[in-house]
Amino acid sequence: MRLALSAGIGGLLFGYDTGVISGALLYIREDFEQVDRKTWLQELILSMAVAGAIGGAAIGGWISDRFGRKRSILLADVLFAVGALVMAFAPAPVMIILGRILVGLGVGMTSMTAPLYISEASPARIRGALVSTNGLLITGGQFLSYLINLAFTKTSWTWRWMLGIAAVPALFQLILMLSLPESPRWLYRHNKEEEARSILEKIFPANEVDDEMNALKLSVEAEKADEHAIGDNLIQKLKGALSNVVVRRGLYAGITVQVPHQFAGFASNETALALSLITSGLNAVGSIVSMVFVDRYGRRRLMLVSMVGIILYLVSLSIIFLEAASHAPKVNQLDTNSIPNTTCCSYISTPKPSSGNCMSCLKAGCGFCSNTANEYSPGTCWNSPRNKEIGAVGHGSKTVVQANSGSWRLFS
């Protein structure tokens, strides 16, 4: 359990990184005007961790096979901790991007190596549950990231704290991993049979160690035979693996499962953080359910049940969003046209602007300013949703809009 939980901190780092940036970016945009104005910079900050993770996963497999699972995780911890600190003290967006790349490398390496390390050191009868601790800690990391995001929203360093504090669990895992053994399977494969046996003696009862050693021997020999048949270099191995219909179907299924998780987003800082907190909390609950039943009912059955649930709820969300869009507050054409230099030209040029609503205003690339008397009543469509210099007075029950006054509600 100590080995599984210690290695599983890699999952927590993975989950924390994927969750924290959604909240941190909201405040990075406030500190760096160029990030706020240039969407490609925002996309670069978000995507560089993914790019780093792709590279980390690619080299992580080679490192873990060559130097061991333990050393691969230790290296990932160093990369993650350094990347988190680089982001925390970043003087410019380019340093945030560099930090994201380093963090991504660490995430990619640990997301591949940690489950492998746990599975190779786990008894078969509880292997599924122990490997699931990594998944539980991924969702736990996401939940933790949203809690930390909420905790630091009122501090002066906001996003710096959000990103920099990730170095703490990375260093904690590094310390724990130093006291843990190498994977017995990796040791056996590299002709270190006595070391492998000594580790298995700590995991299994004495009367089961010989059986486990025999099983390990047969498994490693079969693996080597398969590799020899496929080919010795990476290209040959990939080609051989992808030519297997079972491997291909598993790969397609795994990719398909991940895609639906990436679609929804919310504009409000507080709403985005709160909803993400709820989702990540339920993710953690789902991971616990998986741990309880995965070894009893199998991986495939749980996957099918979860996919049915995902499909049903995504369809439900789509219907809700469509209904919300069609019933969005109308645009008050009189107020919109009467405020000098702020009317959204692209909205006015759309077909039938007089019958438009908040959603049609946003689709035109403008900002919708709601009615303060009743946010469901008609509002105004403004030209520059993030213009800090706006200072105008609306008509009727409209709010007085002043820069940084906090007395306006703008949806963009």
Automatic annotation (TrEMBL):
Domain named Major facilitator superfamily (MFS) profile: residues: 3-412
One Pfam family in the UniProt entry: Sugar_tr
InterPro entries: MFS_dom (IPR020846), MFS_sugar_transport-like (IPR005828), MFS_trans_sf (IPR036259), Myo-inositol_Transporter (IPR050814), Sugar/inositol_transpt (IPR003663), Sugar_transporter_CS (IPR005829)
Residues that span the membrane, as ranges: 39-60, 72-90, 96-118, 130-152, 158-180, 302-322
Keywords tagged on the record: Membrane, Transmembrane, Transmembrane helix, Transport
Domain of life per record: Eukaryota
Predominant localisation class: membrane
Location(s), subcellular: Membrane
A cellular component annotation (GO) from this entry: membrane
Molecular function as annotated in GO: myo-inositol:proton symporter activity
PROSITE patterns, per the entry: MFS, SUGAR_TRANSPORT_1, SUGAR_TRANSPORT_2
Mode of membrane association: Multi-pass membrane protein
UniProt family annotation: Belongs to the major facilitator superfamily. Sugar transporter (TC 2.A.1.1) family.
The protein's name in its UniProt record: Major facilitator superfamily (MFS) profile domain-containing protein
